[in-house]
Design a protein that fits this description.
The chain is mostly helical. It contains two helices and no strands.
Length: 77
Amino acid sequence: MLVALSPYAQFQPSCFHLVKMGFVMGYTTGMAVGALFSIFSCLRIGIRGRGLIGGVRKTMMQSGGTFGTFMAIGMDI
């Protein structure tokens, strides 16, 4: 789709920039949701201390990567 440029020469972002932006937005959202769910589930089953930190970290990375990938694909489409 062609878009008319303004007289101030503002350019459209490239496809790579859109995919990168989608991944970063999805990764941060996934990490936040992963932190909430993992803290709740770890505390519910009684994990404390280093186990809690390790479990939360692992879940945050997994959910952030998964949601970031889907958001990057969605921004590409």
